[in-house]
Hints:
- The complex is a heterodimer of chains A (about 210) and B (about 325).
- Chain A has about 210 residues and is mainly α.
- Chain A has helices spanning about 10-15, 20-35, 50-65, 70-75, 125-135, 140-145, 150-155, 165-180, 185-200, 200-210.
- The radius of gyration of chain A is 22 Å and the shape is elongated.
- Chain A folds into two domains: about 5-90, DnaJ domain (Helix Hairpins), CATH 1.10.287; about 125-210, 434 Repressor (Amino-terminal Domain).
- Chain B has a domain at about 25-170 and about 240-315: P-loop containing nucleotide triphosphate hydrolases (Rossmann fold).
- Chain B is about 45% helix and about 15% strand.
- Chain B has an eight-stranded mixed beta sheet, sandwiched between helices.
- In chain B, strand 7 (about 240-245), helix 10 and strand 8 form a beta-alpha-beta unit.
- Chain B is globular and about 55 Å long.
- The interface between A and B is large, with 39 and 50 residues.
Amino acid sequence: MLGLNELDYYEVLEVPRDASLEEIDRAYQILHEAYATESLALYSVFSEGDAELMRDRVEEAHRVLSDFELRREYDASSPKATGGVPVAGDPRVGGNDGWAEVSPLGSSPTLGDQMEEPEDGNWNGDLLRRARIHAGVELEQIAEITKVGIRTLRLLEDDAYEDLPATVYVRGFVTAYVRTIGIESTRAVASYIQRLEESGLDEGRGRFLGRR
Amino acid sequence: MIRVQPKLTSPFQAGSPPTRAPRLIALGGGKGGVGKTFVTTNVAVTLARMGHRVVAMDADLDGANLHTCLGVANPEVSLADFVAGRVNEPAKLLIQTRESNLQLIAGTHSNLHQPQPDKTRRVELLRGLRRLDADYVLIDLGAGSQPAALDYFLVADEGLLVMRPEPTSVENAYSFLRAAFYRRLRLAARGHGVRELVEEATDQRNEKGIRTPHDLMREIEVISPVEGRRLMHTMRAFRPRVVVNEARTTADIKLGFAVVSVCEKFFGFKADYLGYVNYQNEARESVSAREPLCDYKADSDAARYLSRIAAKLAGVPLSRKGEP
């Protein structure tokens, strides 16, 4: 077993040596938060000094492994290099110490895999919010990616139909929202818009905005 | 949702010899009130409805209430009768619940002086559990890290660590894991100096400065590389499965991933994130109603997540969306 300082970058990020860029980014996101100051998971075990060391190592590992050139150089120089940048057909999945060992229980919950579509296909704001939380996405992130204002996103989640702009815009917002959290968009958007239209609040609102 | 597909064999058929030993699944977590009994209840009922023959055992002899959650008001026999020697075969402790595939071993009527069975009795109990004609035996360990709870956790095929996203629960969960790890190591350690070293490390303020199982394994390797390698191999079987209960936020859900990483980086052993159950008022209400949530509010998110945990334990492959 290795001390924090002796772990190589793959061990730091807990990814196999042939991890894709996506896996590396995902692992980084998780560990970045896991070792953040005030992280609940560190309580009673990690000292602030150890946590800081881990944070540095996670940042460093991510910087190198997420850069194609740096990663290739690192793999070439690393004494433990048995895998490296993925090559099609490489049988050495997992590489060191069974990192990619398949759990008999199947996969861990991955963020975003736990929300399902409601059986009646009825998407309202509350369901959007729950889907977002289960996908592990903050409202601020959606706002940043979609450029839809955070206030509008909140209105979507609150089903505040009367305060939302015309349906044509709402359609675009909901589409952007659900795509960001990784949900198949067509049905969710259609369902949300249908509810909006059935509420009877959309018409008046459309006309009001149309007058402006 | 889990589709109910009853097996053709009738549950607990009298006279039919067990085809294979049941899988033991222990649910611990150190802290009281984190939802061990709630998770045990619902996973047991879900597994039973999937067609498996399930026994749920309440090893929490100080604070038994699994029977209540399963709707058995006054258990006539309990584990306490086994501890006291009034019953010698665990099969005779079984109580039928409302669920046809699910039987209970209650934890009521314990002897206040010595609630937990002594070591010999524990071994007999575990042997008896393995002989039960069932597919799964779920063991609700109750709070604390007393030897009996640790032994059930270590002997079980799956050890589930239930925690709530709060510092007190996280702290006790780590203490529980640490205690379990050291106990396993102490039982496995051989050779001059190694056992003593493990004993010494159990005291967290030991003079050698061994703080974690990780440190200890390194020390063992130093004094005996062969024994170090052997123990490392043995301890690989120590693989707790984390369940986060009452998750309200994204951060709560992510706690499971973080705890798994801390187990690896700090303690030096691997854990898995088995799943989480979201916070829901109906969950609390179901306990008050003395009904499993999967009956009380079957279509709730929490009931779905519990059924996923059950499906994972049963090895049912989950689809991309996490549907069994």
